[in-house]
Amino acid sequence: MPSRVENMVQTETGPRHVMQGTYLGARIEVIAGYDIRTDGWPFHICVHQREGQTDRLSDRPTALWAESLDSAFDRGFEMAVGHLTAKGQLRDLQPAEDSK
Fold this sequence. Notes:
alpha+beta; six-stranded antiparallel beta sheet; 1 helix; 6 strands; globular
């Protein structure tokens, strides 16, 4: 899992597995469950921002799929870190309110 994510903890196990952590002040949740039909692990990613906004990085039903639970968690956190990093870079490119 990405080493930049902090406070990682698995909060649910059972039919639904949830791992969460924080990165750049945002709470990341990766939710996965085993699908017997595909013998795989479909997963969802939610990023909860400090401002109260939630970004869902997957469709319903999800098209994101992994071969194992660990792989689902790894891929989910990597995608969330990429999303937050890109968002931060875009925010840095915005002109400051004072410069207008």
